[in-house]
Amino acid sequence: MPYANHLFVCTHQKSGVGRDVAKALKHAIKDQGLKAVVANGRKLRNAVQECDCLDRCKHCKKGSGAALVVYPEGLFYGDVHPKDCAALVREHLGEGRPLAALLLDDK
Ligand code: FES
Description:
Blueprint (H helix, E strand, L loop, with lengths): L2 E8 L6 H15 L4 E4 L2 E10 L14 E6 L3 E6 L4 H10 L13
Parallel strand pairs: 1-3
Antiparallel strand pairs: 1-4, 2-3, 4-5
The site of FE2/S2 (inorganic) cluster has 11 residues, from loops.
């Protein structure tokens, strides 16, 4: 099944916060009924994947949270903690508008 949104979460910190963030995102997606969505008659998945360094270390292992990227837009979030995940999923995946408070400005 193709993806509506594919989230990659950096787990390259010693603290393990990235794994906790990935887990919290998966739970939020499930709790909010967003594991699969239908768009233009196609069933699409929202999925979370753990990955290595995303080159946003200032907002990841050098702080207390984790960095992640959401495709297809390729938007980066930083300093994300498990407590932020329900809002991130609701706003970005559910409402289609990025969660501005944690969005990184990559320009
Ligand atoms: S260590 Fe997480 S982005 Fe580099």
